[in-house]
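pls read this protein:
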Amino acid sequence: MNEISADGRKGEILRPKGFNAPTARPSDPASPSARGQLAEMLRPDEAEALYHEGMAAYQHRHWREALERFTRLQELQPARPGLDALIEEVRWFLQLEAAAPPGRELAPRSPGPGLTLAGFQKLLLSHRGLLAALAILVVAATLLVTFRARLPLNWLPWRIDADQEIDQLYNEGQGRLAVGDYEGARAMFQKMLAISPGNEAAETGISLAQRQQRLADAYAAAGAAIAEEDWDRAGIELANVLAVDRDYADAEARAEFVKQQQRLKGLYEDGARLLGLGQWPEAITRFQTVRRLDPGYRTEAVRAFLLAAYSNAAESLLARRGDDIEAVTQVVGYYERALDVDPQNQLAMDAYRLSRWYLDGLQAIADNDRARARDAFVALEVEAPNYANGAARRRLYELALAEGQDALAAGNNALALEWFDRALGFGVADAGAALRGRQLALAVTATPTPTPPPTHTPSPSPAPSPWAIVAAGAVSAYAGPDDAYPTVGQLAQGSEVTITGRRPDGLWLKVCCVDGREGWVAASQLEVSGSLALAPEIIPPTATALPTVAPASPEPTATPELFACISGYVLNSAGAVGFEDWLVTVQEPTGARYNLRTNADGFYRFDDLAVGANILSVAVADGWRAISPQRVTVEVAAAEYCVEVDFWMRPGPPPTPVR
C-alpha cells in the first residue's frame, strides 16, 4: 500500500510480519488491517483451514472429526512440526472414549467422603481405562505447556486480541509518520515491541521515525539560518540533510541557493575590501559580477560602491596618464559605465561631459586641428578651471604658443606678439617659452630698417632670426664652436634659444642665452626653426690658441618701460575670430568707469589704469553666449606688459539658470 511519507515522497509503508504464522503470509495492497490479511490467507490455504478446523474439533472433544482433519493435513504437510504427536493424542482419546462405560465421563472423579478402602479399590479396578486416560491427559497438558513457545501463536484464541492491538498500534504509528509526528510514531512502535518483542516492523518503524526526525530537525535549522542570512550554517545543515536523503523536500534547491548567496557575499565583501585599498579596477570587477549574478542583491549598496569605484578609477587614471589619448578614452568609458549603473546621477553626468570635452581636445591636437582643440579646451576651462590639475589651461597655453611661434617664423611679428601675450595670459607655471617668444617678437619689431642705398631701392624688413629647441637631454654650451672650448653652461631638454651665429660648415651654432650669456651648441642637438642662412657666419680662432675664457660680464640692460594696462580680445570660440565693435568696460578701484569698443580684430586695450583690483566686463550681443567669465576682477600692477584678458563667445542664447 503506497502512501505519502513525511518528507512528501511516496514509499512503501512498513508492514508487521503478521501474527507469527508458521509460514510467511503474502502482502495484499488492498488489506486494510492485519485481521483482513489473516482472512485473506485462510481462505485460499487448505492446510491452514484443516489445521484450524481440527483444533476447533479437538477443543470441543469431537475426536473423530479432529482425527479426520489432522490426517488430511498430514497428507498435505507430512513434515509439519508437532502434527504426529497431535494425531497420536487424538487416537488415545478415541480409545478411552471407546473403553469408557456408557454414560461415563472420561474425566476422573474424586472419591466421595463415605467411600471405604475396599470400595475405593474396587472402584479403581473398575475404572482402569479411565485412569489411563487421565494419565494421558496429564502428559498432554505437560507437553502443551512445555512446547507452547514452539507452536504457532495465532492458533491460540487468546492471541487474537493481541494481534488486533499490534495492528492498531502499527497503523497509528504510520499515520503519525505521515503527518510528521515522529515522536508519537516512535512511541507507537515501542508499544508494539512491548507486546511483541523483536517485531521487525516495529523496529523498522522506530528507525524510520528517528531518521525522519533528524532530517526534519536539520532542515528546520537550515531554514532558520537562511532567515538570519547565516549562509555558512545553512550550508552545513543542508549538507547533513542531503547526506542522508538527496531527495528530501527541496533541500537540494535550497543548497544551491545557499551556495549562490555565499558566493555573492564573498564577492561583495571582497569588493568592499579592494575599494578600501584603492584597487579600483579590481573592486569594479567584483561588484559587476555581483550585479550579473543577482541584480537584486543589496542593490543600493552595490550601486553606491560601483559609482565610487568608477569615479576613483577615472580620476586616478587621469592624474597618472592625462596626456595619453588611450588612457583618457578609458576614463570616458568609466563614466559611461557609471551612468549605466545610475543614469540620473548628476555628478556622473557632469564628469562624463567634462571628460568628453578633454578627449575631443586631445584628439583635435592629434589631428592638428588647433581651432577645434581650442574650442574644446576653452569650454572645459570655463566650466572646470582646475580639471585634471589645470590640463585645459596648459593645453590652451601650448596652442597659443604654437600659433605665436608659427607667426614668428612666418615674419608676422605683430600677430606673434599677440599670440605670445595670449599664452602668457593663461598664467601657467612655466611660461618661459612664451616670454622668450614675446621678447624676440618685440626685438625684431623694434629693429630699425637699414638705411636705403643711394638708388633709393626700398629694403625689405629683416626676417626674424632662427631659433631652436634642445631636442633630447641636457646639453652643454661652449665658449667656441667645438667641445675643446670651455663650457659656459648647460641647457635643459626643451629649452628654447635664439640662433645668433653659425660656424661656416653649419655643424655648430651660436645661441642666446645660456645663463645670461651666449654659447656654442652642436647643431645635431637642436631642433632648428627658421632659416639658418639668416644667422651670420662666425670664423673663430683655432681652439689650441685660445686661452681659458673667463665668464663674461653681463651686458647692462636698459630699464624697461612699465605699464598699468589691460588688453585682450573678444573672440568667437570657433576659429578664434575677433568680434568688431563690442563694448568692453573697466571700473577702477576708485570707482571710475571707462568704455571702449573692439577694433576690427576684436582687440581692446585700457591704458594708465589705477593699480589694484579693476573690474572688467563685456556686453554680450544678441544670439551669442559667453563661455568665459563675462565679468572678471583683474589685479593691475606696473609691469613690462599688459594683463591679458580674453572673452570667448559661442553662438546661442545664454544658458538657463539651474534652479
In short: The longest helix spans residues 200-227. The chain has 19 helices and 19 strands.
